[in-house]
Design goal:
The chain has about 270 residues and is of the alpha/beta class. It has one domain: Dihydropteroate synthase-like (TIM Barrel), CATH 3.20.20. It contains 9 helices and 10 strands. The strands form 2 sheets. An 8-stranded parallel beta sheet has the order 8-7-6-5-4-3-10-9. Helix 2 runs parallel beside helix 3. The longest helix is centred in the middle third of the chain and has 18 residues. The relative contact order is 0.13. The structure holds pteroic acid. Pteroic acid binds next to strand 7.
């Protein structure tokens, strides 16, 4: 299995690690653009050294209840970082649902569009179709500010699968080849702890959609619910979640803690081959 994404043809016969690069001004700096850009680029280069296979660059948090970032601000955050990382030698992904950001990021050289809204915004399908970038289609119930208020499902696995199948169909009809697409059940996006755990347990049933799977569980509250720890104490739970995800069929894991994830997944690969 391969993923065609921009300048790259990513071999998915072994599990891949996507390192998270958040481009957000830290509250202690003066909010200067250089400080923010330089810090994000330095962190990204560290993730490359730790063995990341993909860098996922985002300028607006989509975690539950996060405040939206205006378009201009998101562009000011991510575009300089993308330009600085184009020569890093690994695929770059842009984490955005805004068509204008997708367009500018593609012009700046990204290889993958990672959209938590699965290209439902007006014009998004057309922008990705007109390029050669890879695409992550993710499931979300509701929208980030309110999605955790009262998530409801009759059958979470089937509803997520049906949504992803419908968005895959829309992407293909817009002219995006299947070989460019990965699917993501969207852990933590309009889901209770029980919904997230059911999806993880039944992840392999999403393999019947016939496309590679991406999983993002790193440091999320579902892990905190299970181990009773705060967000900066969830590294071990996160490594375990990546191992379980890959053993249940994930091809790409999106993580903060790249080095321990890379090591853990080497053991999974070694054990499965022998
Ligand atoms: C994800 C993902 C993402 N997650 C993809 N992109 C986030 N493809 C951002 C919590 O419950 O899973 N897949 N981009 C981050 N979103 C969240 C959601 C962060 C929930 C934290 C939580 O703690």
């Amino acid at each position: 299995m391969h993923l065609s994404c921009g300048r790259f043809e990513l071999d998915l016969s072994t599990p891949r690690v996507m390192g998270i690069v958040n481009v957000t001004p830290d509250s202690f700096s003066d909010g200067g653009k250089f400080n923010t850009t330089d810090k994000a680029v330095a962190h990204a280069m560290e993730l490359v050294e730790q063995g990341a296979d993909i860098l996922d660059i985002g300028g607006e948090s989509t975690r539950p209840g996060a405040t939206p970032v205006p378009l201009d601000e998101e562009l000011n955050r991510v575009i300089p970082v993308i330009k600085a990382l184009v020569k890093a030698g690994i695929p770059l992904s842009i984490d955005t649902y805004k068509p204008e950001v997708m367009c500018a990021a593609i012009d700046a050289g990204v290889d993958i569009v990672n959209d938590v809204c699965a290209l439902q915004e007006d014009g998004a399908l057309e922008i990705v179709a007109a390029s050669k970038v890879g695409l992550c289609l993710m499931h979300m119930q509701g929208r980030p500010q309110t999605m955790q208020a009262d998530p409801q499902y009759q059958d979470v696995v089937n509803e997520v699968a049906d949504f992803l199948a419908a968005r895959l169909k829309a992407a293909e009809q817009a002219g995006i080849a299947r070989g460019r697409i990965v699917l993501d059940p969207g852990f933590g996006f309009g889901k209770r702890t029980s919904h997230n755990l059911t999806l993880l347990n039944h992840l392999s049933s999403l393999q019947s959609l016939g496309l590679p799977l991406l999983v993002g569980l790193s440091r999320k509250s579902v892990l905190g619910q299970v181990v009773g720890l705060s967000v900066d104490e969830r590294i071990h739970a996160s490594i375990a979640a990546s191992v379980v995800s890959v053993m249940k069929g994930a091809n790409i894991v999106r993580v903060h803690d790249v080095k321990p994830t890379v090591d853990a997944l080497k053991i999974v690969s070694a054990a499965i081959q022998n």
